[in-house]
Amino acid sequence: MSAPTVWPGADGKPLSCREKLKVLAENHAEVRQALQDAFEDAVLMGVDEAAMREMLRGLVDGLESPRKPG
Q1: Hey, CA dihedral for 38, 42, 58, 68, is it positive or negative?
Q2: Nearest to 5, CA basis, from 24, 33, 30
Q3: What is the pLDDT of residues 35-51, one digit of tens each?
Q4: With helix as H, strand as E and coil as C, how does the chain read?
Q5: For residue 70, what pLDDT is reported?
Q6: Contact 29/3 with Cβ under 8 angstroms?
Q7: What's the rounded Cα separation, in Å, for the pair 6 and 56?
């Protein structure tokens, strides 16, 4: 899966800053590769694919927002 072509901003408008888009695309590629590697390792070591996908979804769901009041 390639990086999204549109990154929606907090105001609902797509981001247009080239530098931000570049960083977001790089982050997307890095995260995707890390998740792919972890998924492959787990499955090759005998973890159920569906269970591993659910665990990875749980990681994303558990991410804390930097905008969340401290």
Answers
A1: negative
A2: 24
A3: 999 999 999 999 999 99
A4: CCCCCCCECCCCCECCCHHHHHHHHHHHHHHHHHHHHHHHHHHHCCCCHHHHHHHHHHHHHCCCCCCCCC
A5: 60
A6: yes
A7: 24
